[in-house]
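Moderator note: this is an archived Q&A kept for reference. The question asked for a predicted structure of one protein chain; the sequence and the answer are reproduced below.
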Amino acid sequence: MLRLVSTIALLAFSAASWAGPKVSVETTLGNFTIDLNQEKAPISVANFLTYVEDGSYVGSQFHRVIPGFMAQGGGFDKDMNRLPTNAPIKNEGYNGLRNEPATLAMARTNNPDSATRQFFINYSDNGFLNAEQSPPGYAVFGKVIEGFDVVEKMAMIPTKRIGRMSDIPVDPIVITKVTLLK
């Protein structure tokens, strides 16, 4: 009985920890919904929502898709032109959230505090991106809670190389609408 109560409590805690703002993302490949963790990643969530609310994710594409690893988007338009950014944010890699399947994390350069508008969705358990294994890590701030099959379909599209960039889907996967759900 105690084990059952503990399991139920753990499940309730897990569900509650992801009970933040939700965002619907429509793409040329289909739609998915993200649950954001404002409690553990307040800076990353606020940053992401800035781009959602100003509409600048619309017209951007998933420009780097690596099967079994991740799908990255938000930083380039369908013609691979870099999109304008706000100031970089502080890395929240030590927030306790893990780079597990279906989670969203902030993309960044080698500078830990360089994340702006690009994010990625993990296809698998990418523990090597967590702060404990790769300090200071890549900050997880959300999770795909509906439509992960759409994200998985992205990995089935052939990719190409343009200049120094690789893993670009041959057929652009463009974000057509992003909505903060009430």
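Archived answer notes: The chain has one domain: 20-181.
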